[in-house]
Amino acid sequence: MTKQTSLRDRALAFHALHVPGRPLILPNAWDTASARIVAHAGAAAVATTSAGLAWGLGAADGDRVDRDRALGVVADIAAAVDVPVSADVESGYAEDPEGVADTIRAVLAAGAVGVNIEDALYGEGAGPLRDVAEQAERIAAARAAADAADVPLFVNARIDTFLRGAGGVDLTLERAAAFRAAGADGIFVPGAVDPGIVKELVDGVDGPVNIMVGPGAPPVADLAALGVARVSAGAGIPMAVHALVHRAARELLDAGTYDSLAGGFDYGELNALLGGGRQR
């Protein structure tokens, strides 16, 4: 894939990476440096993590970053790598479906060819999940905006039933069917890692299923055998990175030692990787 590859071609290539049993593996990135490192490591695509991106901007996760700031980072990432980029746009950075459509147009302008749109609600007094019909309208608006631009944007509908303790397999499948009917291409169920549950989701969803992994989750090979089509790390990598910053800072301040810094990138290698042109 080259810099000249059209947005439509990149979107088609991204779709083709979602194969049940041979999943797309996404070590999520949050800025240009992490995106280049992920692409250099061999990832076939780069997906952002909204939490990592928000933290990098000095904000909390959960619809607290405005659209322009978030998509400015996405644009920088898309300009820095030659693999397809998918943007985590939280709940769409908008109050209504028309606003979600505006977000999708901005996502395409930033050069991304996929989005995650979640159904969680944030804020004081908010329920854990958005009403299924309302969320379906938002997904339909995203689909229509992408179709109007003639770009087969991969719309990954995130369902937070398991992550927020709001329901089990039956409710998840009910919402998945509604979101697929509204135009979602794939279904993302963070918090579901039990092999039996994952298998029920794969069998019950008419489309690619995305599972989020971290310590304690089954290996990718096991998820592949269950028919998962996409595996992502979510906020796990930036959480580990920021934990290292904290450990190293405390060690230096408290003990005056530096053992936490062992195993880091070679300066010249990292400088060349991040200072050069687009990767891959």
Automatic annotation (TrEMBL):
This is Isocitrate lyase/phosphoenolpyruvate mutase family protein. Pfam families: PEP_mutase. CDD domains: ICL_PEPM (cd00377). Keywords: Lyase, Pyruvate. It comes from the Bacteria. One of its GO terms (molecular function) is lyase activity. The lineage of its organism: Bacteria, Bacillati, Actinomycetota, Actinomycetes, Kitasatosporales. Coiled coil: none annotated. SUPFAM superfamilies: Phosphoenolpyruvate/pyruvate domain (SSF51621).
